[in-house]
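Crash report, auto-generated. Payload:
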Amino acid sequence: MLTLTSPVETAFHRVPAGRKLLALAAATLVIIPLTDLRWIAAASLMVVLLYLSQGREFARSGLRMLWPLWPVLLVLGVWHLATGEVRGGIGIALRMLAAIALANLVTMTTRLDDLIAVVERVARPLARIGLQPRTLAVAIALVIRFTPVLLLNAGQLMEAWRARSARRVGWPVVVPLALTALDDAERLAEALRARGGL
Amino acid sequence: MERNVTLIALFAALIAVLGLVPKIDLISGVPITAQSLGVMLCGTVLGARRGALAVLLFVLLVALGLPLLAGGRGGLGVFAGPSVGYIVGFPVAAFVTGWITENWKADIGLAAFGGAILGGIVVLYALGIPGMALILGKSLPEAMVLAAPFLAGDIIKAGLAGLITSGIAKVRPGIVLSRG
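Recovered output after restart:
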């Protein structure tokens, strides 16, 4: 399965994941309460420069990550044109885009392995209430492995539906799909136990 | 132990798959994303604790940068976006949904429907709307107006969660763990 990590190697890739996450948390806490348009514009400009500092190709993929937000921007646009607070609307939209783009920057420049290592480190104290870091790592790996498998199963179930019915695929297909997940879980648990368990 | 871990992981994957398969007609002619249906099913099928953990695992993987949200979205940016309250609220919604399915001794389908309404809609909106208000700079009543168009679809999904749960219970009695 693809991750959202950028294939373009940047200087940010070499910064330790934990440090990037802390910086992101701090910056987000500063950006979200901003209301003055000048400060918001300054923060946005800084985010744009961070992207551009790693080349235009990288900046362009950063822009693509923001594309799914267009319906939100459309709603904001209509709302603020109707109420006449256009300046406020621009501020809200810019603030949101800056905060999201900054978070995307961390996602794009941090490898999944490094993030999982941070999660394991942060989750270590949870061993005292019974969650071993290894159990968590296995669970993460299982989801990554079985999402494509279930997606394939879903595709087959939908094809089988289309072969038998003139109607379009409907919600009843979720019943066998959920049963597949339940059955796979049983078999997988047995396989894990047979290999010495967690 | 192994069984709990694999069930939680497989249902986390199921939520992702329901968000990534776009072409199921939940009601005839209107394709809507089934991701929140997946969250409801985690509660109704796995029960409160396992259901909430499955959804929590899903949210964790989204945060780690896997594109598992409907439309292939993911990463930390999601948590700075207008749907942050909903995503953070997903595990809570699954817990409440599961708790009601476990404890309301009605017919399984009806209990699952009631659980999905309270957990998947009332609780989820109670957490989602303030998040939307914060990010989009709106008051709570204004954010409610923005959330209202999704209500009809979510009520339908709660109904489907009930039907699907009772369907699973019928095919494989005893497998619905929320009633184990």
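Post-recovery validation: The two ends of chain B are 16 Å apart (CA to CA).
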